[in-house]
Task: inverse folding
């Protein structure tokens, strides 16, 4: 009987404590977009399409601790699915250092760390194709990771030096259905082997000019996550490719002109076959000009290039290509914009074609 009374007393105490604490409702903001797509590609069709529906929220837990959550409803080609894109908790240790745990956008490049899942955030209707998220057809980078993130910034000379250091679960790929049939796996609740993926990004922002520079590096052991009988011939957890990613990025934001550029170098070492070591390259350059307060034309050039024998790109099943993107952004207000975009796609193999997008992107704060 005494144990029952103790439990009853404890329950009453928890209820009383909860009743005297201030109640805080988590308020979500919402990004969304609606599109009309067309293409000149043979066999292609035109259609209206719902874009991603992105719910996000930031909540302070105490004076030094905050948490973030981002849920995205997106079309996987046949139906809408729910993805937990980001979920992290962060503690500020001092003015120059934060420590966080959870699921993050990988500290690779400016775009991935600043333009997240809301289309309103960026000037074009689409991201650079090779910066597509892991489940995208053109994805070549692990743009999310689960683990720890250390970040902060310090005054350095005539600017601000920022840093981000990550340690997380390594990416994997399931080749059970063949190469190019899966996606880069983030591994939210497990890791295929004991190897972890370290990475870091350093940025420098000038005080006297609207210019920011960044340098990043990340090391991965891409593991096989499929069962026996897969295309790679590797056992579950075995390393398919030892990879080192290095990247540089630039962002200039003038009164009317802005310029963005990112370059990625992927050194891939085949660990289960005889393909050896190869290096792939991907980059984009984007230029925008603010004609009026609401109207902005944008041009972007994208390129993906690699050796045909590169084991990593063979596993992903992606193609080498160049893209010319021309877009026109018109801000109806701070919370909704119209974008008209035409993209000329020039694959290394196969004919060129043009993709058209008319997008209405908006934010519900």
Result:
């Amino acid at each position: 009987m005494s144990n029952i009374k103790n439990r009853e007393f404890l329950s009453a105490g928890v209820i009383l404590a909860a009743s005297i604490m201030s109640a805080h409702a988590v308020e979500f903001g919402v990004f969304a977009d609606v599109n009309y797509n067309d293409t000149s590609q043979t066999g292609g069709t035109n259609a209206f399409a719902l874009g991603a529906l992105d719910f996000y929220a930031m909540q302070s837990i105490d004076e030094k601790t905050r948490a973030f959550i981002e849920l995205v409803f997106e079309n996987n080609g046949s139906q809408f699915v729910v993805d937990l894109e980001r979920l992290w908790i962060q503690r500020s240790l001092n003015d120059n250092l934060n420590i966080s745990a959870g699921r993050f956008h990988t500290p690779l490049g400016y775009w991935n760390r600043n333009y997240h899942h809301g289309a309103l955030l960026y000037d074009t209707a689409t991201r650079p194709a090779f910066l597509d998220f892991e489940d995208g057809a053109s994805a070549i980078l692990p743009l999310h990771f689960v683990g720890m993130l250390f970040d902060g910034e310090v005054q350095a000379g005539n600017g601000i030096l920022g840093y981000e250091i990550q340690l997380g679960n390594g990416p994997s790929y399931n080749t059970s259905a063949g190469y190019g049939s899966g996606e880069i796996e983030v591994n939210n609740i497990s890791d295929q082997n004991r190897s972890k993926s370290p990475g870091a990004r350093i940025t420098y922002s000038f005080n006297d000019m609207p210019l920011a520079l960044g340098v990043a590096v990340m090391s991965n052991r891409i593991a096989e996550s499929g069962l026996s009988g897969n295309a790679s011939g590797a056992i579950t957890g075995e390393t398919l490719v030892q990879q080192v990613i290095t990247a540089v990025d630039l962002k200039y934001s003038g009164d009317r002109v802005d310029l963005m550029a990112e370059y990625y170098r992927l050194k891939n070492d085949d660990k289960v076959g005889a393909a050896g070591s190869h290096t792939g390259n991907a980059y984009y350059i984007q230029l925008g000009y603010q004609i009026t307060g609401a109207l902005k034309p944008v041009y972007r050039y994208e390129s993906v290039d690699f050796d045909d024998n590169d084991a990593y790109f063979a596993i992903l099943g992606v193609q080498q290509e160049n893209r010319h993107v021309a877009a026109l952004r018109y801000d109806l207000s701070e919370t909704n914009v119209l974008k008209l975009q035409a993209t000329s796609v020039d694959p290394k193999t196969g004919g060129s074609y043009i993709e058209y997008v008319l997008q209405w992107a908006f934010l519900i704060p």
Observations:
- The chain has one domain: 32-364.
- The helical segments are 2-20, 109-114, 311-316.
- The first strand starts at residue 29 and ends at 39.
- Confidence is low (pLDDT under 50) at residues 1-23.
